[in-house]
Specification:
The complex is a heterodimer of chains A (about 625) and B (about 70). Chain A has about 625 residues and is an alpha+beta fold. In chain A, about 50% of the residues lie in helices and about 15% in strands. In chain A, strands 10-22-21-20-11-18-19 form a seven-stranded mixed β-sheet, with helices on both faces. A six-stranded antiparallel β-sheet of chain A has the order 2-1-3-9-4-7, with no helix packed on it. In chain A, strands 12-17-16-15-14-13 form a six-stranded antiparallel β-sheet. Chain A starts with a helix and ends in a 5-residue tail after the last helix. Chain B has about 70 residues and is α+β, with helices and mostly antiparallel strands. Chain B has one domain: Alpha-Beta Plaits, CATH 3.30.70. The two termini of chain B are about 15 Å apart. Classes of the chains: A alpha+beta (about 625), B alpha+beta (about 70). Chains A and B meet through helix 2, helix 4 and helix 9 of A and helix 1 and strand 2 of B.
Chain lengths: ~625, ~70
C-alpha cells in the first residue's frame, strides 16, 4: 500500500469507529436529554471524517465547472440522505464509497505493477568500459561506439555488437522464446536480453533511446493513443450517461410527488440512489484496463501491438494474406542446381555471383555464398574481377558489367524484355526459383535456388483455420508451379504468383474489396520491401521485427520472432481480450440499469446503489486482469 | 515538439479521459494521449506554445482532478 492509501485506510477506520459509537447511542441506549442531537453530531463527525475529502473536491469541482464528477454526485447523494433523515445511511454510503475507492486504487495499482513486471526489460544501469576501467553508469549516458561489459545474469542495456566473449542469451522477455540463443564475437546483441553464461564486451551501436528495449516500451505505452472503437464509444457514452441519469434523478424527485400528491422524502430517497449509480467510473476504467492487459499479455509472448484498435480489428479478422519469402519460408535460399549453356559451371556461377554481389536480395546473397564456398573448395586465387554499372531491376533481377561483359541475371521476363537470344523456353519446372543468366545478350544457363518452409508454418496455418480464419492467401513473386505447390503443401486457399512488389498492393486492395462488412484483413510480411502493403491492409503484421526499424515503423503489429505460430496466439489473445471487455460492459451497464429500475420503483436501497458503483467497478477490474494471462 | 508527463494519483479513468480531451483541444496541440494505466501523458504540439504548454497541462489536470501530481519527463 502506498502512503496515501494508508492515510485513507486510517480515515476510514476512524470514521467507522465514530459511526459505531453513533449507532450505539442512537439505537441501543435508553432515552436521555439531547439524545437526538448527540447522535446527530456523532453521525456528522463520522461523515466528515470519511467524506471530507470528497466534499472538498466536489466544491473545487463546482468552482472549476466540473459539475458532474463523482465527488459532486456522492456529496449530493449523502447530504440528501441526511436531509431526509437517514443519517446512518448517509454516513454508511460515504464510508462504503471510500472503502470502494481504496480498493479500486489498490487494485489498479496492483494491475499496473503486474503489467509493468511483464515488461521488466528496462535496464537500470550499464557497465561502461573505458581505458580498462569499468564504471557503472546510467544507460542514457552511454554513447554509440562506447564499450560496455555485461556480466552473467545481467540484462544487456543497449543494442550493440559483441567484440569479446561467448555466451547464451535469454530472449524470453522480448520474444517469449524459451530456448536461449548462442552468441559469440561478431554477433549482434539486442538490449533487453539476459546474459546467461559468460561475460560479454559489447560495442554499442544504438543510443539508449533508439535501442530495442526503449522502442518496445515506448510502443506499449503509446498504444493507448490508438483507441479501439469500443473504447471511444464508452468514453463518449460516459459523457452523456451521467447528465442523463442526474436529470432523471431530478425528475424522479419532483414529478411523482407533485403528480401523485405524495410526500417528497420517499421520492427524494429514490432519486438519491440514482445519483450514486450515475458515476461512470466502473464502465470507463475496466475497458482500457482490459485492453492494456491484452496488449501486455501479447507483449509477454513477443507480439507487439501498436494500439487497442488493432487488437479489436484482429479479433474480427477472417482473411489472412501472407507474403511467402521470410514469412512462411525461412528466406534462406540455397543453390541447388546449376545448368550452364555454352560455358562452364564455375564460370556461370562466378559471373552471376559477381553481378549479384551488391544486392541484398536473399536470392543474390545465396548465389554469392555458393560462389564463395566453391572458391574455397578449389582454392581459387583469382582476384576480384571489376564489376560496374550495377542496376537492380525490382521484380526482375539485376544487370551489371563484369570484366567488360554485360551480365543479366533474373527471371524469364527479364530475358524476354532484353531480347536475349538462345533462351531455352522449355525450362524444367522445379519446386524452387530459377535464375536465368545471359552474358552479352546470349543465354548462358540457369541457377536454381530453393527455400525451405519454417518448421511451424504448417501447424500455424492449421491453427489459424481452427481460429475461424476463412480465407488464407499467399502472394509471391514465384512462378505459378512453385507457388501453387507450396500453397497446396501448407493448405492455403488461394495463391497469386508472378507478382512484382507493386502488384501485391493491387491484390490486397482487391481482396479488401471482397471483404464482407464487419470482418478485417490482415497482411503478414517480413517488413522487407512490403511496407506499402503493410500500411494498406486493415492490419499489417511484420514478422521477425527484432532489430528491423522498417518493420517496426510500417506495421501495426510486430511479431518479434519469425515464427508464424505466434499468429494464432495473437488472435486468441485478441478474441479473449474483446470478450473480457464485452463482459465488463454488459455486466457494469446491466447492474446499473437494474439498480436504476429497482430504485425508481422503490425496491432498492442506497446499499445496492453503492454496490452498483464501487462493487461493479472492483469486479470489472478483477475481470480485466484475466486479459493479462 | 513532444513532451511526456508522469501523472500520479489520478482518481479514475473517467477523469483521465476528460483531461485528455481538454488537452487535445488546446490551441497549438496536435495530439495528446493519456495512458491511465502507465500514468503517462504524451503531448505533441507546435513550437510556438512550447513555453506555455506545461502550465496549460497542469492547469487542466488540476481543474479536473485537484489532487493530481504532475512531473515532466
Amino acid at each position: 500500500m502506498t502512503k496515501k492509501q494508508k492515510k485513507m485506510l486510517k480515515k476510514i477506520l476512524t470514521a467507522a469507529a465514530i459511526f459505531a459509537a453513533a449507532c450505539l447511542i442512537s439505537f441501543l441506549l435508553p432515552d436521555f436529554p439531547f439524545k437526538r442531537w448527540v447522535s446527530l453530531v456523532l453521525f456528522l463527525a463520522a461523515y466528515v471524517t470519511a467524506g471530507g475529502d470528497v466534499i472538498r473536491k466536489a466544491m473545487l469541482g463546482i468552482r472549476n465547472g466540473q459539475v458532474f464528477d463523482e465527488n459532486f454526485l456522492m456529496s449530493i447523494a449523502t447530504i440528501g440522505a441526511f436531509y431526509v433523515g437517514e443519517y446512518p445511511e448517509g454516513v454508511l454510503v460515504m464510508l462504503l464509497y471510500q472503502i470502494g475507492e481504496l480498493f479500486q486504487t489498490y487494485a489498479v495499482g496492483k494491475s499496473r505493477k503486474s503489467i509493468a513486471s511483464l515488461m521488466q526489460i528496462r535496464p537500470d544501469s550499464a557497465n561502461l568500459l573505458k581505458d580498462g576501467i569499468v564504471t557503472e553508469v546510467s544507460p542514457e549516458t552511454v554513447a554509440v561506439g562506447d564499450f560496455i561489459l555485461v556480466k552473467p545474469g545481467e540484462k544487456i542495456p543497449l543494442d550493440g555488437r559483441i567484440t569479446e566473449g561467448t555466451s547464451s542469451l535469454d530472449t524470453a522477455a522480448l520474444t517469449g522464446e524459451a530456448l536461449p540463443q548462442e552468441v559469440s564475437t561478431g554477433d549482434s546483441a539486442i538490449s533487453g536480453c539476459i546474459n546467461l553464461r559468460g561475460t560479454l564486451t559489447i560495442q554499442v551501436t544504438r543510443a539508449f533511446g533508439e535501442s530495442t528495449v526503449s522502442r518496445i516500451l515506448d510502443m506499449v505505452e503509446h498504444a493507448s493513443a490508438k483507441k479501439a472503437k469500443t473504447e471511444n464509444f464508452i468514453s463518449r457514452f460516459a459523457r452523456f450517461y451521467t447528465p442523463v441519469v442526474v436529470l432523471l434523478a431530478v425528475l424522479l424527485a419532483f414529478l411523482p410527488p407533485l403528480l401523485l400528491k405524495e410526500s417528497f422524502s420517499g421520492w427524494i430517497y429514490r432519486a438519491l440512489n440514482f445519483l450514486v449509480v450515475s458515476c461512470p467510473c466502473a464502465l470507463v476504467i475496466s475497458i482500457p484496463l482490459g485492453f492494456f492487459g491484452g496488449i501486455g499479455g501479447a507483449a509477454k509472448q513477443g507480439i507487439l501491438m501498436k494500439g487497442s484498435n488493432y487488437l479489436e480489428a484482429l479479433s474480427k479478422t477472417d482473411t489472412f494474406v501472407f507474403d511467402k519469402t521470410g514469412t512462411l519460408t525461412r528466406g534462406n535460399f540455397k543453390v541447388t542446381k546449376i545448368s550452364p549453356v555454352g560455358i562452364s559451371k564455375d564460370d556461370l556461377l562466378k559471373f552471376t555471383a559477381l553481378a549479384e554481389s551488391q544486392s541484398s536480395h536473399p536470392i543474390a546473397v545465396s548465389i554469392v555464398e555458393a560462389y564463395q564456398t566453391s572458391r574455397q573448395k578449389h582454392s581459387d586465387a583469382a582476384g576480384i574481377l571489376p564489376v560496374s554499372d550495377v542496376e537492380e531491376l525490382a521484380g526482375f533481377g539485376v544487370c551489371a558489367v563484369v570484366e567488360g561483359k554485360e551480365i543479366l541475371a533474373g527471371n524469364m521476363r527479364l530475358m524476354r524484355d532484353r531480347q536475349v537470344t538462345g533462351t531455352n523456353s522449355s525450362l524444367e519446372e522445379t519446386s524452387g526459383t530459377t535464375i536465368c543468366v545471359a552474358i552479352d545478350g546470349t543465354f548462358a544457363g540457369t541457377i536454381c535456388v530453393e527455400d525451405e518452409l519454417k518448421p511451424d508454418t504448417i501447424p500455424a496455418i492449421q491453427k489459424l483455420k481452427q481460429c475461424g480464419i476463412k480465407k488464407l492467401v499467399m502472394l509471391t513473386g514465384d512462378k505459378k508451379a512453385t507457388g501453387e505447390a507450396i500453397a497446396e503443401a501448407i493448405g492455403l486457399n488461394e495463391v497469386h504468383t508472378d507478382l512484382l512488389p507493386a502488384d501485391k498492393v493491387t491484390h490486397v486492395e482487391e481482396l479488401l474489396n471482397q471483404q464482407s462488412a464487419g470482418h478485417t484483413l490482415a497482411y503478414v510480411g517480413d517488413g522487407i520491401n512490403d511496407a506499402p502493403v503493410l500500411a494498406r491492409a486493415d492490419i499489417g503484421i511484420a514478422m521477425g521485427g527484432l532489430g528491423s526499424d522498417a518493420a517496426i515503423e510500417a506495421a501495426d503489429i510486430v511479431i518479434m520472432t519469425d515464427e508464424p505460430g505466434k499468429l494464432p496466439a495473437a488472435i486468441r489473445i485478441a478474441k479473449r481480450t474483446m470478450s473480457i471487455v464485452r463482459q465488463n460492459i454488459v455486466f457494469a451497464l446491466g447492474v446499473k440499469v437494474l439498480v436504476l429500475i429497482f430504485s425508481a420503483l422503490g425496491y432498492s436501497s442506497m446499499w445496492w446503489a453503492i454496490f452498483a458503483d464501487v462493487g461493479v467497478c472492483m469486479i470489472a477490474i478483477l475481470n480485466s486482469m484475466r486479459a493479462l494471462r | 515538439m513532444k513532451k511526456t508527463y508522469v501523472m500520479e494519483d489520478l482518481c479514475c479513468a473517467n477523469c483521465a479521459n476528460k483531461i485528455e480531451t481538454e488537452i487535445k483541444h488546446l490551441d497549438g496541440v496536435t495530439s495528446a494521449s493519456l495512458n491511465f494505466i502507465a500514468q503517462k501523458l504524451f503531448v505533441e504540439f507546435e513550437d510556438r506554445i512550447a513555453d506555455t504548454i506545461t502550465a496549460s497541462v497542469i492547469k487542466i489536470a488540476t481543474k479536473v482532478e485537484p489532487d493530481v501530481s504532475i512531473e515532466e519527463l
